[in-house]
Give the backbone structure.
Amino acid sequence: MTVRKFCYLGSILSQNAEINDDITRRIGAASAAFGRLESRLWKERGVRLSTKVAVYKAVVIATLLYGCESWITYRRHVRSLDQFHMRCLRRIARIKWQDKITNTEVLQRCEISGIEAFIIKAQLRWVGHVRRMSDSRIPKATFYAELPSGTRPNCRPLLRYKDNLKANLLSTGIDPTTWEDLAGNRSKWRKVCVTGVQHFEEIRIASAVEKRSRRKGSTSQSVPAAESSDTRPFTCDDCGRQFTARIGLVSHTRIHRK
């Protein structure tokens, strides 16, 4: 019997080796775990925010990122996971969208990193374990294996795990040519991973803040001061009545058309 996908040890294995279905399953399982603690913990006002975040990391994040060490993530996957991550943190911290608080500030209040930092840290620590395994172990043999024949298509092919690993190493400031030597020492590799992930998160936050300020600055520069003011009067040509918003003038002009 041939199937396109099946569940093995809690993860969805698909025929095309993509993780779309696995991501959907992980988000559903994490959402269920989050919902079970809604009335018992998240809504409790007598529990500290730090305690709630610690439980969230131990229960929800662990469920959400189960098996992420072997994921080959694209930006769409990171966005889906990050949206769920931020939605949960806002509910835990009781932050509504009307408060107009950025995701960066939410992470700072909860003292937690973005979801991509969790994935990178888990993958780097796992490849360190694989590097220190004996050559007879199946994970290490599979990790360093290569196909004896075959060619890749001319168009951009799908990402391989080593492509994803190389991108993670570069984003954390680790040299892809010397990471195996560093991973040989467990304590040293763990320190390098922690430092590298912190460096990645700092750069990501700085980039998000700069992007937001640049977007807000371009918006304010593109709109003249007279038009951007909320108190600018809009005058009706028929009766001379003034309105502070254009929508009020539009609704008023419908009266004269009748």
